[in-house]
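Might you be able to check the backbone structure tokens below? Thank you kindly.
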Amino acid sequence: MIAYNKEQLDNFMIQEAAEAVKEKGLISQEEWEAIQAKHPVKLYTPNIFVRIGLALAVIIGALLVNGLFLLMGTDLLRAASSVAGIEFFLGIVCYFLLELYTHAKPHYFSGIDDGLIIVTGGMMITGFILMEMNPTGVTFLTMFMSIIFFVRFPLRWLGVFTYGSILAFVFAFLVNVIPAPALVLSIVIFILSLATFMLTRKVITQYRFRYYSEPISWVSYAALLSLYASVNYFVVREIGGNMMALEPGEALPLGWFFWITTCVVPLIYIYLGITKKSRVCLVTGLTLVAATVYTVRQYYYLLPVESVMCIAGFVMVGIAALLLRYLKTPKHGFTTSEEHIDHSKEKSILESLIIAQTMSAPQTPTDTGGFGGGSTIGGGAGGDY
């Protein structure tokens, strides 16, 4: 399924885990060098700036080629279907180059693979739109194509885009095909987001999905955000207001329920983050507190925006200072001191990766059917004594 070399990916993960524990002094320099020699990585993975630059170069180059093809075929491209054909053709060529670079050239998160995925998907989607497909059909094909890309190329941003395309298809299907009321749409998105988050939490710890662990983690963030958006008063009021033709200032049906969820859901995230030691829930909950304040500010005037921001800033700095002081000594599994952190889990992850790769290595079969060369008392087929 995955397009990248699995052995190289395993070596990459082993070196990443080894480097993390080396920086914390858990392994020596000699052990680190031995791991590098035992598990060499030949993948080309530049830093984020080079990656962005290469991706932009690929996208710009593809757009220039696309424009050149369109200019050369100006007289022939009388219909939108002809332009769509050009887009499909160039999209297929870009996908061929993507597979070629992935196999022939050891590119992994290099920017070239990112750029080719964006160009291929963009050209294919442009072709679907030019064929005058309805929104539901376009979102379905986009979702289908995104899933294929994600299975082949487990990039972080691609996982989030795939999840977004699923939400877009569900939204378009409910609005254009059924059509569903705004409140039903909110409930469906809520259930889908919750199911996605629970699924990501389940599969992220499974060894067979190790190549997808980071993208799945990003998807879990996106699922929590979409869950909150589905019950946020501002989002439901603005989208549902257009669908239900609400007048400006008119109250949203069951508005009291959405006000409760707008304020309570971030607190639930923070509570789960603390009790379950989940960084995903904790970070998302703290971030959504700001979204809650913004939502309340949209409908109820309390203070000028500048005053609200200053007060909120002082409060957050004060809370941060108190927490830093309180957590100098570990409390309930939380601490701000590096020396109190338990690194046994990181070492076990490194050991499990190395052991798993060793156990999965193919064994050379021993040929016992023929005659072997003797090296002791009797003479074997090779004539040695």
Q: What stands out?
A: Residues 306-338 form one domain.
